[in-house]
Design goal:
The complex is a heterodimer.
Chain A: H1 4-22, H2 30-66, H3 79-90, H4 102-132, H5 145-165, H6 173-216
Helix pairs in contact in A: 1-2, 1-6, 2-3, 3-4, 5-6
Chain B: H1 4-22, H2 29-61, H3 67-85, H4 104-135, H5 141-156, H6 159-164, H7 177-186, H8 188-212
Helix pairs in contact in B: 2-3, 5-7, 7-8
The chains are: A mainly alpha, B mainly alpha.
């Protein structure tokens, strides 16, 4: 299907849709809205299908019905718990017992809270503090000057940045001055993130322009 | 019953998972729970898909403004659903791989969803350019710092940036724009990122505690 006529049809369709989305730069119009509606429908269908085959079929159906009993892990039956919770979620469609659908939701929220509490505390708090509180002059007191400056910058920046985020105390006096230093570091961070966002969007734009002028119009060889 | 049982489930499951971290035989529980999430997510997609059908069918039936676009959405959704669930055009039939190149599902993905998705994000380049103009007017000290950092990062990742400062002698190579960009990323930027990450970490810990202790209950919705 990807060869000959169908290849050209697919190419023109992709170009038509690409230009449709770009037409929004002129103003909101019917062409754009049609493309947008297609995108919503196709995306919803795509994720539905992907989750259906990857999770419900591969993880549940294959795990419970297809895999021979001898090859199953010891706790294979726990898959039923997931399916039972999923079915409870569908009770939302029955108004009289719709409140039962909160149970799987409570399960997800509770499990996520429990998992995140530990993992984020370890990765975002403990690990980051551990990497910040390091010997400024190096482990053997032999770090080069640029590394010493780097260590000081990271330690001061992290500490003052945290002070800026501490809103339980008014930002006045020495505390306020430290918060201002924190803003300085945060602005550099936002600037760097902004620069990267601009670059990633530009590279996507170049990719689409390459498709239009190279793949579709063949103007660029 | 309507609120107490979900609150108990939240507390029990959350506490169990926290405890499992400290009990070696229970360490794999977290992985089991992620399988539950995946299976539950499929049923959530049933609800979501059903909701999409209901909302758009209602819009078409009552001929509300822009109902024509709802027909387009419905057709696109059902076509993708049929192509994927029945694996239409798949040489391997219903047991074939979903991502086989010749299948309708993959053809629709490559020629419709992928161009639409990447163009949507590419469109943001123009809005980012407009936002850059507003951000880069350097009205005050903070905006100036943001401007300078973003400018050096942008310039440092391009051949033009390398060319611009290649004349600087090697003993001062830190002042060359690409090296300056690297230093900003690994120095001040890292410090700011760490402060933000620690802040997020502490925020998540406190929010998780609020949820587990039943102080935060908004996820339960109203009492109907």
């Amino acid at each position: 299907m990807e060869s000959g006529l169908m290849h050209h049809v697919a190419l023109w369709l992709a170009a038509f849709l690409t230009l449709g989305i770009f037409s929004f730069l002129y103003r909101d119009n019917t062409w754009y809205k049609v493309c947008e509606a297609i995108f919503v429908g196709i995306s919803a269908g795509y994720w539905f299908v992907a989750y259906f085959w990857d999770n419900l079929y591969t993880k549940f159906w294959v795990g419970v019905w297809v895999t021979p009993m001898a090859d199953r892990p010891d706790d294979w039956y726990v898959l039923y718990v997931g399916a039972a919770l999923g079915i409870l979620m569908l009770l939302r469609l029955v108004p009289k017992v719709g409140w039962i659908s909160r149970w799987p939701l409570a399960f997800i929220v509770g499990a996520t809270a429990g998992l995140y509490l530990v993992t984020y505390f370890a990765s975002n708090v403990m690990l980051q503090i551990e990497d910040t509180v390091r010997p400024i002059f190096g482990a053997e007191n032999d770090a080069p000057i640029y590394e010493i400056i780097g260590n000081i910058v990271v330690a001061v920046g992290t500490f003052t940045g945290l002070i800026y985020f501490f809103f339980s105390k008014e930002h006045r006096g020495a505390f306020g001055r430290a918060a201002k230093v924190g803003i300085f570091f945060l602005m550099i961070t936002f600037g760097a993130s902004f620069g990267y966002t601009v670059m990633s969007r530009m590279s996507l734009l170049i990719g689409r322009m390459d498709f239009l002028f190279s793949d579709w119009l063949k103007l660029i060889k | 019953m309507k609120r107490e049982v979900p609150l108990f489930i939240t507390f029990f499951v959350g506490t169990l998972l926290i405890a499992s971290v400290f009990i070696p035989p229970a360490e794999s529980w977290g992985e089991n729970f992620s399988v539950y999430f995946d299976i539950i997510a499929v049923f959530a997609f049933f609800l979501g898909g059903g909701n999409l059908l209901r909302i758009h069918l209602q819009k078409v039936a009552s001929k509300r403004p822009d109902w024509g676009y709802s027909i387009v959405t419905l057709v696109a959704f059902l076509v993708m659903l049929a192509a994927g669930l029945f694996k239409l055009g798949n040489p391997g039939g219903i047991s074939g791989n979903l991502t086989t190149a010749q299948s309708w599902f993959q053809i629709l993905f490559q020629n419709i969803m992928s161009p639409l998705g990447s163009t949507m994000y590419a469109l943001l380049a123009f809005f980012v350019a407009s936002a850059s103009y507003r951000a880069f007017r350097a009205k005050n000290r903070d905006a100036t710092i943001l401007l300078v950092a973003a400018f050096i990062i942008l310039l440092g990742r391009t051949p033009f940036g390398t060319m611009l400062t290649s004349w600087i002698p090697p003993q001062y190579d830190l002042l060359q724009v690409p090296n300056l960009a690297i230093w900003i990323m690994s120095g001040p930027n890292l410090a700011g990122q760490r402060a933000i990450m620690i802040g997020i970490g502490l925020g998540i810990v406190s929010m998780s505690l609020r949820i587990l202790l039943g102080i935060e209950r908004t996820y339960l919705g109203d009492d109907r």
